[in-house]
Amino acid sequence: MRLLSAIGLIAVFSLMPGKPVFAQEDSAGRQMAMEFKIDFGRIELSDVPAFVSLAVKSEYRQVSISQAYKSRLPCGMVIYKLFLNVEGSTKVNYYKEDGSKYIPGRDG
């Protein structure tokens, strides 16, 4: 029973943001899990694309971006990690270049 609990915890922690897990088939058609860490580099707030800024402003009534980071995934997709000040608290959201939300581990 403890072994199953430990396996469950490992599965939950392996799916946390920053370490997406993807499935890919090998040459025999078996599904293999692939894992990679997303490395972000800090960028100037002025370098955040207009589509991303508009998406943030349409999602929250009163918001300001305090920090912005950018990363290119192995598949070529560019994503932005933004630290947002929303009504007195800080939130971290991820966006694709086109302004749509990016959810780590769900696409890549």
Automatic annotation (TrEMBL):
Residues 1-23 form the signal peptide. It comes from the Bacteria. Keywords: Signal. This is Uncharacterized protein. It comes from Prolixibacter denitrificans.
